[in-house]
């Protein structure tokens, strides 16, 4: 039997089309928790933040890229929705990502996001009143800050070492497209295999 894939998919509310970096393959079920949506990378574009039964918390943007420092490892099933907010009241007013595990551990991480930045869906059912209504005003953040839509265009690959490491060749200000770190290794192994095959033919 084939192994099942666990996916997180993102669609445009304007066009209904799936975003270029979607669906995102993750390691396990997301159980009954809904994702939260906030800018935790500090680039003015929101990430979808979701935990899984594979012990990880992911934060990916519309291009499918993880925010710096993500995914986070919890060593336990994440069975609740992630919550977003300035937990420690620091001078930077940075957003923290908070989540609990099935085993009863509570985790909180600092992020590069701010509580004055983009926060579209801060917790389970959107807000503290559990309205599930996107139009309900939150006590933190704004719905939009970036001046232009995120650019998820795929660049033309002209050199072997420009092979992408999955997803698309997305870019936003200050964040470049991922490049496969093992692309050069793969080419080297292929060349070695060809050379070995030729030497065997000569021996025969």
Describe the protein in words.
With 204 residues, this protein is an alpha+beta fold. It is built from one helix and ten strands. The chain has a five-stranded antiparallel sheet, with no helix packed on it. A three-stranded antiparallel sheet has the order 7-8-9, with no helix packed on it. Strand 8 (94-100) and strand 9 (106-114) form a beta hairpin.
Could you list some keywords that capture this structure?
21% strand; Lipocalin; five-stranded antiparallel beta sheet; 10 strands; three-stranded antiparallel beta sheet; 1 helix; 204 residues; alpha+beta
Fold topology:
Elements lengths: L5 E3 L15 E3 L9 E3 L8 E5 L4 E5 L11 E2 L9 E3 L8 E7 L5 E9 L4 E3 L61 H21 L1
Antiparallel strand pairs: 1-2, 3-4, 3-10, 4-5, 5-6, 7-8, 8-9
Mean pLDDT: 82
Low-confidence residue ranges: 162-173, 178-190
Whole-Å distance between the termini? 41 Å
Strand order of the largest sheet: 6-5-4-3-10
What is this structure, in a nutshell?
By secondary structure, the chain is of the alpha+beta class. It is 10% helix and 21% strand. The chain has a 5-stranded antiparallel β-sheet, with no helix packed on it.
